Amino acid sequence: MGKIGYARVSSQNQKLDRQIELLEDVSKLFSDKMSGQSIERPELKAMLDYIREGDIVVVTELDCLGRNNQDLTEIMNEIQQKGATLEVLNLPSMSGIEDENLRRLINNLVLELYKYQAESERKRIRERQQQGIELAKEKGKFKGGQLKYQKNDLKLKHAFELYLNGSTEKEVEQVTGINRRTFKR
Q1: Whole-prediction pTM value?
Q2: Domain count, the chain
Q3: For the chain, which terminal residue's Cβ has fewer other Cβ atoms within 10 angstroms, N or C?
């Protein structure tokens, strides 16, 4: 039985230091620097493959594992199927309850409530953001993302000519300097 830590931040420029410090008592630590929007994260997969029966998976906050109820449920189910348990440091501890089944039941209920709260908060953030964008549009302050190239841009026309004459997207990128993803759009 071991304590296995998992830490995550949403982007490469964010720091894991705070989480790593809180997870200093774990025997093995896995960490990702990528969005929690998808469960396709290399270190999350490695951690789920690594855990064994009796292990305790420790995270600082529930949203480190995922952003929505469905993903969190899938991850938590996989942890339970392997015979491991989940400990979330910012949630109430159930260690004072001696009956293991009762402790697991209460822990699962608390986790379900927090999963619901996390997903609801994410929806509220998106709604407030959309409301702010609408207000800014009404006031003429929101322009949206600006296009990098206009339709009549000579560089873009050259890129299309190259592509239509048989050049690959990679070759077009090398010659014109226009990123392949930008060119596709």
Answers
A1: 0.58
A2: 2
A3: C
Per-residue pLDDT reduced to its tens digit, 122-166: 788 889 988 988 888 888 887 777 777 777 888 888 888 888 999
Is 133 part of any domain? Answer: no
Spell out the residues 6+ positions from residue 106 whose beta carbon is closer than 8 angstroms to its own: 94, 97
The boundaries of the domain holding residue 46 are: 3-122
CB 176, CB 155: distance < 8 Å: yes
Torsion angles phi and psi, residue 105, rounded to 5? -65, -50
Residue 10: active-site member: yes
The catalytically annotated residue of 10, 27, 31, 95 is 10
Q: Please list the ranges in the chain whose pLDDT falls under 70.
A: 92-97, 103
**Does one domain contain both 27 and 113?**
yes
